[in-house]
Specification:
The chain is an alpha/beta fold. The chain has eleven helices and 14 strands. The relative contact order is 0.12.
């Protein structure tokens, strides 16, 4: 997958996305500052959400439109989305600020008009939210742009994911990435089942990754260790600012620590390798080897009393010990001498 000229997938660094979502709290300048903070914290991209309350739902107080339980308990959907949305008139300036900083900006469109709007801004990729992965007409519209698509799988069954992936391919989408996601806020690590990440890649022949609503970066590191090529995390300047998504968002220092942990994790994965590593050469001396542990006269027999297998590793290797015992010294040897073949005579 290529996004904004950046290659993503095997052999390339993990692509780390800072999700701004509602964390601007209705303040455009704060939103622009979040872009700057995300770039400074090591994010490769920032992501918006493009909708209005009216494109997501209707203003209705009937029970189906009121959230029961969780972070937004008793909130009316329309009012929640009205509070959380990013005004469309901000988008051009947000995209421009990201470009100025050298960081990619894209968004999640929640209806067909949002897709058209983001195309006018030349968004390099489109994101599909986990709740929208079953919206086949929307997927068809997104795919028709020919852009790459990143889709969160959330609560989708394997059959629903397959239907979404086929829809995107048939209708012309570019490269596709599927993200393992737990659609609860905040999510707990035990719910993630990150072993699903390589299964997504193998099953659908795509790159896979993680959309992470958990606290901390443990789940993200686990995901990268299993082959995640994309990690998305909600980002906020300060959780004390409040807002609909603040409780499960990372502050800049936390995000920077996650970025470093992910970079360390992907380097640690390396390749299949045995033997002395680049930084281990100085440590090989601390292996065991055969040493003289009592003064030995010339002609004296090597025994388990006057020789031992000990550290450091300057003498013959332990595997040679049976061949040494019973043979004789060709010269006088002091206690602490590393045993070598040139002072060993005779035969067993």
């Amino acid at each position: 997958m290529i996004i904004d000229g950046r290659k993503i997938g095997p052999g390339h660094p993990v692509y780390i996305i800072a999700e701004i979502s509602a964390n601007h709290n209705g303040d455009k300048e704060k939103c622009l500052e979040l872009v700057r903070l995300a770039q400074a914290s090591g994010a490769d991209a920032v992501k918006l959400q493009t909708y209005t309350a009216d494109t997501l739902t209707i203003n209705c107080d009937k029970p189906p439109f009121v959230i029961e339980g969780g972070l937004w308990d008793k909130r009316n959907l329309y009012e929640l989305y009205k509070e959380a949305y990013t005004p469309w008139e901000w988008h051009a300036d947000i995209f421009a600020e990201a470009k100025r900083l050298g960081i990619t900006c894209f968004s999640t469109p929640f209806d067909t008009t949002a897709v058209d709007f983001l195309e006018e801004l030349d968004a390099p990729v489109h994101k599909v939210a986990s709740f929208e992965i079953v919206d086949i007409p929307l997927l068809q519209k997104i795919a028709s742009t020919g852009k790459p698509v990143i889709a969160s799988t959330g609560m989708a069954s394997l059959e629903e994911i397959a239907r979404a992936e086929e829809t995107l391919r048939v209708h012309g989408a570019g490269d596709i990435a599927l993200l393992k996601c737990v659609s609860s806020y905040p999510a707990v690590p035990a719910d993630f089942n990150v072993r699903t990440i390589p299964h997504l890649a193998e099953t659908f022949h795509v790159i896979s990754g993680l959309s992470d609503h958990s606290m901390g970066h443990t789940v993200a590191v686990a995901a990268v260790s299993l082959g995640a090529h994309i990690v998305e995390k909600h980002f906020i300047a300060d959780r004390s600012d409040g807002g609909p998504d603040s409780a499960f968002s990372m502050e800049p220092q936390e995000f920077a620590e996650m970025v470093q942990a992910l970079r360390d994790a992907e380097q640690a994965l390396g390749s299949i390798d045995y033997g002395v590593g680049h930084n281990e050469s100085g440590s090989i001396t601390f292996r065991r080897s055969i040493f003289v542990v009592e003064d030995i006269a010339a002609g004296e027999v090597f025994t388990e009393q006057n020789t031992r297998i000990i550290r450091p590793g300057h003498g013959l290797p332990p595997m040679d010990y049976p061949r040494v015992l019973g043979r004789t010294a060709t010269a006088a040897l002091q206690r602490g001498t590393a045993l070598t073949w040139d002072v060993i005579g005779g035969s067993v």
